[in-house]
Amino acid sequence: MKIERLRHLRGPNVYLSRPAVVARLRLGELTGVETSDVTGFAERLLRVLPGLAEHHCAAGAPGGFVSRLRGGTYFGHVSEHVCLELSQLIGRDVSFGRTVSAGEPGRYDLIIECPVDESPDSRLPRDLLQAAVDLVLSVIAGRTEKPVLDDLAARAEREAAGPSTRSIIAAARRRGIPVERYDDLSLLRLGWGNRRRLAWAAMTDRTSGVGIDIAGDKQVTRRLLTEAGVPMPTGGAARTVPDALAWLDRLGGPVVVKPRQGHQGRHVALQLSTPEQVERAFRAAGADVIVERQLAGRDYRVLVVAGEVVAAAERIAAHVVGDGRGTVGELVERVNADPRRGPGHSRVLTRVTLEPALLDRQGLTERSVPAAGQRVWLADTGNLSTGGTSLDVTDDVHPEVARLCLRVTALLGLDIAGIDLRLPGIGEPLPPVEIGADVTAGVIEVNAVPGLRMHLAPARGRARDVGDAIVRAMFPAGSDGRIPAVAITGTNGKTTVARMTAHLLADTGLRVGLTTTDDVRIGGRVVFRADATGPRSAQMVLGDPGVQAAVLETARGGLLNRGLGYDWTDVGVLTNITADHLGQDGLATIEDLAHVKALVAERVRDGGTLVLNADDPWVRTLVSRPRVRADRKRVVWFGLDAGQPVVVEHLARGGTAYLLEDGWVLQATGARRTSLLRVAEIPGAYGGAAPHVVANTLAAMAAARALGASQDAVARRVAEFDPAVDNAGRGTLFRLGDVSVFVDYGHNPAALAATLRTLHRLWGADRCVAALTLPGDRRDDLIAACAQVVADAVTRVVLYDDEEPRGRPPGEVPALVEREMRARRPKLFSVRAEGCRAAVTEALRLARPGDVVLVVYEKLAPVLALLSELGAVVAAEAPRALPGRAPSAVRSPGRSLMGNERVPIPGYHG
């Protein structure tokens, strides 16, 4: 068995609503072999992993997998369950798995759930799958050794979010706030666009940098608070041993020595009374320290968030209690065996360590046996990071103590702070500060990025949901941090609908982020050039703080290979579903393609809007899919045939549709009809000769209206849409002398047929020349179907290979297209050319005055560059040609005819 490849689906996907990995597994010699064919396999596997007995599998109850195992199942399925069990054993809580055929014997796709906060770049899923495969092969070979998972468990713990970060993530998700964790850091992005916020553990993007610096310098904190009358222990800074000893002489013992800029209780020494102790503590703390009087009393931490005391805890320093039998070392081992304890901050408690100097102060060593009930201190401070524990005392905080903590937080300018106090009891008021009198209780430290663990899981008392308090402060008044968002998918028209929707929404005053096949745009400006239809591009838009609405073109490739880049949208648009990309990524039929595209409809929020093409039979089926839950959404149909039964029934129930009737685009709601604009006013529709452009316009209008655009604004903005600028390369018409050039991106039979029908309506069936390339990653039958469409519609064709033949040898696609065209139309004139430039040049040479040259491209820039060199200009209209006459170019504002001033071609910056 071998893992051939693995892809990480970072968001909702066709398998489940959570992240997952999909691994392609080749069984090799185990193809066709089942577990029942290997003697003793089931029993050996269960000895190695007894937890498999609890796996449900398809039975829906514990033991279901064992029944399959003993009855006979294939080894891809076994590897899936073993991977899930190994994940559980290392503390990675996942439970969903599925194994499906990859389309040929012996190859399977294993789909394994991932923790929602695991980095998409983590290698843990791959290594766990490899460990699962290795274990299965080992058991087949007759071995029963338990797997060694220490390294994987340590990595899983390192990469997992800590308790503080987890609490914020959980609180955000309960509120429906989108949350993304960056890699394996504690950095979180909550919300989208201009409503997004950043948090790093208990620090937010509104936390004052000045406040952090003040709290990070204990001497500055002391001075600022002392001058404000806040009770703090007497003391000060020392940078030399004599300075530190001078403070000891002045204060008397006991004193505390701590690093001036330390944190988490590291190198803090208490109960120091002799010069030797102070000198030793000074050197351990790094020679820049604070020496202050040690206050009597108990150690407390009060958490303040946005002007509110949200939690308080009493902190108990790490210790063990003797039983009269065990040594100090043995007692420490028992404490550290608590599964809640781990290294660092990954768990709610930290493992304790032995400090020989501290034991020596108590007259003990690691081998000492404390008496029963004797408390042995293992740390001076109550910090959880040094192994301490906490007791919740939130309900006991005296109002005077709470007011003091709020005042301290405000004095430092912090939104979140942990105030450390030393008090006789937190339920008692503090005595007022008197000049010249020693402070006996008060503030001992301020933490700008306080740990939350002590409040989330106290050793005793009520747990406090402090993550929720932080989220409430960041998103007041119940805000979910979302911006209006629309996702657009389908086979054809996605890019046009996305661009037009963004254009229409811009009139609402919203700054729109847009992703399409060509680029990412923010506020109409290109910020990133690439095929931007996957989850990374969606996150680029949703994470931009300047974006107020998002329009996301969402293509098949991104859905299958990376999942969605969002959890929910307000609007989902399905343009059409036709044959394309079949034979790729396991898609064998249009039904498979519909299943993938349906994900966009499924992830429209309850109460959101589904914009669906009533003229497309596959799109019409989406409303009946259980996972789409159309009954919980508002369905809006669009289409060119107002008589479609689904539209008629929908309107009879009072629904809304965007339709074409009698040359008008209109909004229909129930029996009411509102005319929006004439078809003749739709740019790029050429007076209705391009009905697919009309359909795209209807979809965009429906989407924009669903997000709040007014009827008048939508109608006006459609008329202002400039296809040559706003939608370059999608049905763009140029004039070059007496020849027209029509540039389009159609790469499948339906797209090519729609374009060629438009050209026939405008120029006639015998006036079309084509310069054609088709992508090599399409299946032979789809390329053949494209060739047949072209053969029926053009009189002359020039075939060329794109720069990237996509997995086929150079010349293979043009040869296949030429063979299919000649089989369809033996007398068709066709030639081949080397590359785009040569093909377009040859097609123009073949064209007669009055002809139109269709250029089907893979990359737009070279086409625009060539046309610009040749002096082509954009033509705003292409009126229907009369027999034997060339269509005349129509002058329009901002455009010139041949012989006049040359107009740069939009999109070309060569």
From TrEMBL:
InterPro entries: ATP-grasp (IPR011761), ATP-grasp_RimK-type (IPR013651), ATP_grasp_subdomain_1 (IPR013815), Cya_phycin_syn (IPR011810), Cyanophycin_syn_N (IPR044019), Folylpolyglutamate_synth_CS (IPR018109), Mur-like_cat_sf (IPR036565), Mur_ligase_C (IPR004101). It is an enzyme of class 6 (ligase). The keyword Ligase applies. Its EC number is 6.3.2.29, 6.3.2.30. GO terms for molecular function: ATP binding; cyanophycin synthetase activity (L-arginine-adding); cyanophycin synthetase activity (L-aspartate-adding); metal ion binding; tetrahydrofolylpolyglutamate synthase activity. Residues 222-475 form the ATP-grasp domain. Catalyzes the ATP-dependent polymerization of arginine and aspartate to multi-L-arginyl-poly-L-aspartic acid (cyanophycin; a water-insoluble reserve polymer). This is Cyanophycin synthetase.
